[in-house]
Amino acid sequence: MPASPLAIPDYRRFWLSRCLSVFAVTGVVVVLGYQIYDVARGTYGMSMRAAAFQLGLLGLVQFLPQILLAPVAGVVADRFDRRNIAMLFTALDALVVAALALVTWYDWRSLPVLFALAGLHGAARSFIGPAQSSIAPNIVPAGLMPRAIAIGAMAWQIGSIGGPSLAGVLYAFGPALPYALGGSLLMIAAISMAAIRPVPPPPGNAGAHPLRQISEGLIHVWRDRFLFGCVTLDLFAVLLGGATALLPVYARDILTWQGHPVGAYGLGIMRAMPSFGATVVGLIIAYQPIARDVGARMLQAVAVFGLATVGFGLSRHIVLSLVLLAILGAADMVSVFIRNTLVQLHTPDGLRGRVSAISGLAISASNELGEMESGLAAALLGATGAVVFGGIGAVVVTVIWTLGFPELRRVRTFSNRYAD
């Protein structure tokens, strides 16, 4: 067995594709959210609360295609070469981002156009997620999977640091530049994915009826209380605790530096700080993976995530806000690493695409619907009230799931999910 997943050429190509894809997408999401908020405030003359509600609609517009397509995307990932699916839809996403670059360059920006392209972006990502998430177990030995997931999560976090930061800087020089860079990186990511050896679909899936395959994935998650608890914990905790959706409000109208709003550049740094904290923790985990009491640590990490969210909502000092965002990201990294490792290792390969689609749908629901919830809460409570309310809600969810799903807190190791 290789000493590290990075010793496997196909995994290196997979890692590069994932890192570039995340780098591009996180930068695009930051700029798109800032554009929509700025257009709503400037072009349409909306108030802060009304413009914040548009950020909630952005989350809804990106989520609706995913909830409609996720079951189909999971079946596709289990019936066809997962590498080809990830490559094709990454290339299609690059075209959507290129369209955003043209719309911005020629100043055709309007809320309907931006929302339409955001919806297409969400549709492409709904197919990329299940296929991409299911590839690693096919190219990495099972004994290296915890480390492979930790290193893969680092790819996500590295991209999430560089993407928003660079996008914020480029936006200051030209609003179309972040989109041009993002489209280019997505095309390179598609090419890197194409260089991986073929990943044939699991045997036995080709002849099954698609509707039956969809139901098999849903039934498997529903009947496995442990798996159901993992998926729903992330869904409700991040759904309530998603402070990042309102970062454009904080950047434009709340947080200042030397008497001036931190603006798009500050927004890029704020969006990068959760990933910075997550990357630091990811490096530690990659060197020394979490091996004991993984269930309890996952629950503790979600609680820390909620408390850091509350602190960020109340903070008015930019440095303190950045530190709290880093803590938030570090806690999320621990939770994501443990959950993803358990789900991948304890899901049969023939169901992995469909289970990944359901898990990805829960993540999308928590992120995009979390943005919708944050927008609605901000319209009613203001940005600060919405963030604080969401953080408290994440802590409450953790307590409820700790009591309602004892399977989660009893997990000791990755190899044996239940305590002795």
If you had to describe this structure to a student in words, what would you say it looks like?
The protein has 420 residues and is mainly α. The chain is 80% helix and 1% strand. The chain has helices at residues 9-42, 48-79, 82-105, 111-133, 136-139, 145-173, 177-194, 210-223, 225-241, 247-254, 263-287, 294-314, 318-345, 349-404, 406-409, and strands at residues 256-257, 260-261. It has a two-stranded antiparallel sheet with strand order 1-2.
Number of helices: 15
Instruction: Write down the CATH class.
Output: Mainly Alpha
Q: Please state roughly what percent of the residues sit in beta strands, choosing from under 5%, 5-15%, 15-25%, 25-35%, 35-45% or over 45%.
A: under 5%
Low-confidence stretches: none
Overall structural class, as computed from helix and strand content, comes to mainly alpha
The CATH architecture can be named as Up-down Bundle
Number of strands: 2
What is the number of domains? 1
Overall average pLDDT: 80
The string of secondary-structure elements, in order, is HHHHHHHHHHEEHHHHH
